[in-house]
């Protein structure tokens, strides 16, 4: 009997799942439903496009022919509005219905709107899609002043876009540094200085009280929490994601700021799986539920979910150490694993542009941030995967070159 696999979302999680299903089961029916108007593209690269440093073409990953050649039905511009988990039917906004034997939810997130006055005014951008990137690129190219909000990994992309497009920008942060959950002031200062060199001014202990607009409703700047006005005819906000799970609210699928899945990407409802940014998955290395917003992790989750969907039993486990790099500056930057949680930490500054911070939980390394020198990233990822008890070996881990043989043996091969 032919199995019908329906995949919601054509991001990297959904698309890699479809590819895996097709390879494993040449006879299966595979359908991908996406509300975007274009097939899979490289979301990581849209920031380079918005900077003006990359044309459209290399950002695209799949043409529509890619799906045709693999006999995968691709439904573009189709927003899913509900799932009937008793009848195994997905319904879209246009009334179309899709029956499934196995369902994969890989609909990712949508940028959280800033809950202040005029946060949806013309000229205030949120950044997730290629469409957003086109609007940001065009607007930044003609703007002279800007305001950036959101001291995290997406906010810094927006700041770098201003830098590349010669927009003189104020970067408003609520705390005293960029990405305060993962960096100490020592590490963050390296980033602050690099931002200043690009014409972006970090403003600390700030945040937006409201945006100001002109008579046409176009943003003119932001008033910060201290009452100061920051001029910006271009504004951009990146304060987090709301996961796209509204269509599951009336079902038994467990939601908890995302979709709860086990280490096999299974929800608690039979035949329904989830993969990518929106999962709250069981991390077998951490031994607790975790979340991860990165390309590599979403891709791997899509593959693991697909293998298990085809096998109809858990044959693959998600056991993965992710990483996320930033390439806007003259020095490289990489975060890996889970750098924002843990019960212990160690850090060292090696030079004006070299710094390292490691985080630990229950005696094990679980994540970190490397600035300037990424040469040890594979060693650190291996230590995490092997669950070595290294929290009392901080000096050795902070050596410029980590000697794996000098550390306690792996707990897991
Ligand atoms: C500007 C930017 C830069 C980034 N840089 C990096 C980086 O350097 N390194 C890194 O590792 N990660 C980076 N990321 C994060 C990375 O892109 C994501 O982690 C990854 O793309 C998540 O993939 P996904 O398939 O889970 O979700 P998504 O890529 O978000 O795909 C979900 C898809 O589902 C669609 N959808 C949503 N709701 C519905 C619905 N109701 N019906 C139908 N379709 C729906 C969405 O429109 C979307 O197309 C970046 C992200 C952005 C936006």
List keywords for this structure.
413 residues; FAD/NAD(P)-binding domain; Enolase-like, domain 1; 3 domains; binds flavin-adenine dinucleotide; FAD/NAD-binding_dom; FAD-bd_OxRdtase; ferredoxin-NAD+ reductase activity; FAD/NAD-linked_Rdtase_dimer_sf; oxidoreductase
Describe the fold and architecture.
- There is one protein chain.
- This protein is α/β, with parallel strands linked by helices and 413 residues long.
- It has three domains: 4-36 and 43-110 and 242-311, FAD/NAD(P)-binding domain (3-Layer(bba) Sandwich), CATH 3.50.50.60; 124-237, FAD/NAD(P)-binding domain (3-Layer(bba) Sandwich); 323-406, FAD/NAD-linked reductase, C-terminal dimerisation domain (Enolase-like, domain 1, 2-Layer Sandwich), CATH 3.30.390.30.
- It has nine helices and 26 strands.
- The chain has a five-stranded parallel beta sheet. It has a five-stranded parallel beta sheet with strand order 9-16-10-11-12.
- Strand 25 (354-361) and strand 26 form a beta hairpin.
- The model has no long low-confidence stretch (mean pLDDT 97).
- Residues 8-14, 33-36, 43-44, 46-47, 79-80, 106-108, 127-128, 154, 157, 244, 247, 276-277, 293-296, 298, 324 line the site of flavin-adenine dinucleotide (FAD).
- GO terms for molecular function: ferredoxin-NAD+ reductase activity.
- Its EC number is 1.18.1.3.
- This is FAD-dependent pyridine nucleotide-disulfide oxidoreductase.
- Residues 4-283 form the FAD/NAD(P)-binding domain.
- Residues 335-387 form the NADH-rubredoxin oxidoreductase C-terminal domain.
């Amino acid at each position: 009997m032919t199995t019908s696999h329906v995949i919601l979302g054509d991001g990297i999680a959904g698309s890699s799942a479809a590819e895996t299903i097709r390879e494993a089961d040449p006879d299966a029916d595979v359908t991908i439903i996406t509300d975007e108007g274009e097939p899979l593209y490289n979301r990581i690269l849209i920031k380079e496009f918005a900077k003006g440093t990359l044309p459209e073409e290399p950002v695209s990953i799949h043409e529509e022919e890619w799906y045709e050649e693999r006999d995968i039905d691709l439904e573009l511009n189709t927003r899913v509005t509900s799932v009937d988990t008793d009848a195994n039917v997905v319904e879209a906004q246009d009334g179309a219905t899709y029956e499934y034997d196995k369902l994969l939810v890989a609909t990712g997130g949508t940028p959280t709107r800033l809950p202040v006055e005029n946060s949806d005014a013309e000229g205030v951008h949120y950044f997730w899609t290629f469409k957003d990137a086109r609007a940001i690129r065009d607007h930044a190219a003609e703007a002279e002043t800007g305001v950036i909000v959101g001291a995290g990994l997406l906010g810094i992309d927006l700041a770098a876009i201003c830098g590349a497009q010669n927009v003189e920008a104020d970067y408003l942060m609520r705390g005293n540094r960029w990405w305060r959950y993962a960096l100490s002031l020592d590490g963050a200062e390296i980033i602050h200085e690099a931002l200043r060199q690009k014409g972006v001014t970090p403003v600390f202990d700030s945040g937006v009280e409201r945006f100001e607009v002109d008579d046409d409703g176009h943003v003119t700047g932001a008033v910060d929490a201290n009452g100061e006005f920051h001029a910006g005819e271009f504004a951009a906000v990146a304060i987090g994601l709301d996961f796209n799970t509204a269509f599951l609210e009336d079902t038994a699928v467990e939601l908890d700021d995302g979709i709860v899945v086990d280490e096999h990407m299974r929800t608690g409802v039979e035949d329904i799986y989830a993969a990518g940014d929106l999962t709250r998955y069981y991390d077998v290395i951490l031994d607790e539920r975790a979340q991860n917003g990165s390309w590599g992790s979403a891709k791997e989750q899509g593959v693991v979910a697909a293998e298990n969907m085809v096998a109809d039993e858990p044959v693959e486990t998600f056991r993965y150490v992710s990483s996320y790099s930033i390439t806007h500056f003259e020095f490289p930057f990489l975060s890996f694993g889970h750098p924002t949680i843990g019960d212990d930490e160690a850090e060292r500054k090696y030079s004006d542009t070299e710094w390292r911070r490691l985080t630990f939980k229950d005696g094990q390394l679980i994540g970190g941030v490397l600035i300037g020198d990424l040469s040890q990233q594979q060693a650190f990822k291996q230590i995490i995967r092997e669950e070595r008890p290294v929290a009392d070996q901080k000096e050795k881990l902070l050596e410029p070159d980590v000697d794996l043989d000098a550390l306690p043996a792996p707990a897991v091969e």
